[in-house]
Write a structure and sequence with these properties.
The protein has 113 residues and is mainly α. The longest helix is centred in the last third of the chain and has 22 residues. The radius of gyration is 16 Å and the shape is globular.
Length: 113
């Protein structure tokens, strides 16, 4: 839900988010794809559809964000955010490495045919 909430927030604060992205050399054209990613893939994870793929995409996204925006380790807060992103990416990788569980759409589609 963290990414879902942030994706919606960025939608309503587009100008500020685009300016922040441009400060780090991220082109404005990636703004809408990033919002779609931050909204769509968390929803897929929450409902348990295409879980492994969604978790892998989210892990790659989270690692990318950490490496692009949070590598100023002189700033203690940036270091903490970087480590948080690495931990979240690790959690996504654990999800992507495991089979779907019983309360997911993936499980239902795979075993309830």
């Amino acid at each position: 839900s963290l990414f879902l909430i942030e994706g919606v927030r960025k939608f309503f604060f587009q100008e500020e988010t685009m300016m922040y992205m441009e400060e780090y050399g991220v082109p404005e054209i990636l703004f809408f794809p990033s919002i779609i990613l931050e909204i769509l893939f968390p929803i897929l994870l929450i409902i348990g559809y295409k879980t492994r793929f969604s978790a892998l995409i989210m892990a790659l996204f989270t690692l990318s964000v950490a490496l692009i925006f949070h590598t100023n380790f002189d700033n203690q807060m940036e270091l903490i955010i970087f480590l948080k992103d690495i931990a979240i990416a690790g959690g996504f990788l654990i999800i992507s490495a495991n089979e779907p569980k019983s309360l997911t759409i993936d499980y239902f589609l795979k075993y309830k045919k």
